[in-house]
TrEMBL record:
It catalyses: 5-(methylsulfanyl)-alpha-D-ribose 1-phosphate = 5-(methylsulfanyl)-D-ribulose 1-phosphate. Pathway: Amino-acid biosynthesis; L-methionine biosynthesis via salvage pathway; L-methionine from S-methyl-5-thio-alpha-D-ribose 1-phosphate: step 1/6. GO terms for molecular function: hydrolase activity; S-methyl-5-thioribose-1-phosphate isomerase activity. Its EC number is 5.3.1.23. This is Methylthioribose-1-phosphate isomerase. The record marks 148 as: Transition state stabilizer. Catalyzes the interconversion of methylthioribose-1-phosphate (MTR-1-P) into methylthioribulose-1-phosphate (MTRu-1-P). Belongs to the EIF-2B alpha/beta/delta subunits family. MtnA subfamily. It comes from Tatumella punctata. It is an enzyme of class 5 (isomerase). Substrate binds at residues 49-51, 86, 187, 238-239. The active site is at residue 228. InterPro entries: IF-2B-related, IF-M1Pi, IF_2B-like_C, Initiation_fac_2B_a/b/d, M1Pi_N, NagB/RpiA_transferase-like. Keywords: Amino-acid biosynthesis, Hydrolase, Isomerase, Methionine biosynthesis.
Length: 343
């Protein structure tokens, strides 16, 4: 299979490598994902993370496995296992539906390799189109708050919400980015802070609990976030803490934008209450771990609630910025995300 490199994935000599997003920014470790089990483990541990990237890594591994001579039956099993690796981000399911289609082709090896590379190339393009659609919404001097990580690390391209911010900054319109640290796993503090600093974008890291005060002080002009799944009524599942920011933005009359590729849209899902929300380990809340080691501060055996995502109702969203353009609340209410009805 041809050599390929994105910010956080690469294929060299027919092997998939991932940049360990749990070790960043202190360490830049490339880890091999040679088997289905190994990739599932990387996905569970969030070494590979971000809705688009999860789908792409699974698709690329399947293509490599097909190329290595894995049988159609074994590939079907591998696909099923990968599909079950994380429940919330629908990009994984959407990408794997296309890989399953390729698996049914007579020459499934060529079809799967072609499809996985096509998905990766498409994702890069989708990010560019999202940035095209998003930047007109960012006036000069904007101070933007973002949550989690939606950048090049999470996609094959420049990112979704972070791609918009980056492009708007290149156009001279971003004065400041507030980076929410994103407890419990600190994707903001570890990854977005790193990506923006590397790019030279003026940014400041805040704890999640500081957002309200910043907004009250008039220091936030807009909130931009990504999405893991967009339901047909416009409700959005995204990293836990997104809903709090949407409520705060609504109260302070600050625009709240969601940026995502169409691969994040789930037309079959009627509303946010139907989106499966991943529950994660207690240890992520009782402490923190990374390349710096593991720290635990909570009392032993404390009961913990740890949903990885929350749902922001459509009513709190000012615009859904997709690769196809900006979608307004009126269009969403009119059913633009609902399944097409046959005549
Ligand atoms: O648990 P994670 O880090 O995979 O969650 C990621 C997010 O919630 C992102 O906002 C979303 O996947 C969009 S990434 C372009």
């Amino acid at each position: 299979m041809q050599t390929l490199q994105t910010t956080s994935l690469k294929i060299i000599d027919n092997q998939l490598w991932i940049l360990d997003q749990q070790a960043l920014p202190q360490q830049k470790n490339w880890l091999i994902a040679a088997t289905t089990e190994q990739l599932v483990d990387h996905i569970h541990a969030l070494r590979v993370r971000g809705a688009p990237l999860i789908g792409l890594s699974a698709s690329l591994l399947l293509a490599i496995q097909a190329r290595q001579g894995m049988s159609r039956q074994a590939l079907t099993e591998s696909l099923k296992t990968l599909r079950a690796s994380r429940p919330t981000a629908v990009n994984l399911m959407n990408n794997l539906d296309r890989m399953l289609q390729a698996l049914s082709a007579e020459d499934y090896v060529t079809a799967m390799v072609t499809e996985a590379l096509r998905l990766t190339g498409e994702d890069r393009q989708l990010c560019e189109h999202i940035a095209d659609a998003g930047t007109p919404q960012i006036p000069a001097g904007s101070r933007i708050l973002t949550h989690c990580n939606t950048g090049g690390l999470a996609t094959a391209g420049i990112g979704t919400a972070l791609g918009v911010i980056l492009r708007a900054w290149q156009q001279g319109n971003v004065a400041q980015v507030w980076v929410g640290e994103t407890r419990p796993l600190l994707q903001g503090g570890r990854l977005t802070a790193w990506e923006l600093s590397e790019a030279g974008v003026p940014c400041q890291l805040i704890t999640d609990s500081m957002a309200a005060a910043l907004m009250a002080e008039g220091k936030v002009d807009a909130v931009w976030v990504g999405a893991d799944r967009i339901a047909a009524n416009g409700d959005v599942a995204n990293k836990i803490g997104t809903y709090s920011l949407a409520v705060l933005a609504h109260y302070h009359r600050i625009p709240f934008y969601v940026a995502a590729p169409h691969t994040t849209l789930d037309r079959q899902c009627p509303s946010g209450s139907h989106i499966p929300i991943e529950q994660r380990a207690a240890s992520e809340v009782t402490g923190v771990s990374g390349s710096f080691g593991t720290v635990s501060w909570a009392p032993e055996n404390i009961r913990v609630h740890n949903p990885a995502f929350d749902v922001t109702p459509a009513a709190l969203i000012s615009g859904w910025v997709l690769d196809t353009g900006m979608v307004t609340p009126q269009q969403v209410a009119g059913g633009i995300f609902r399944p097409a009805v046959a005549d």
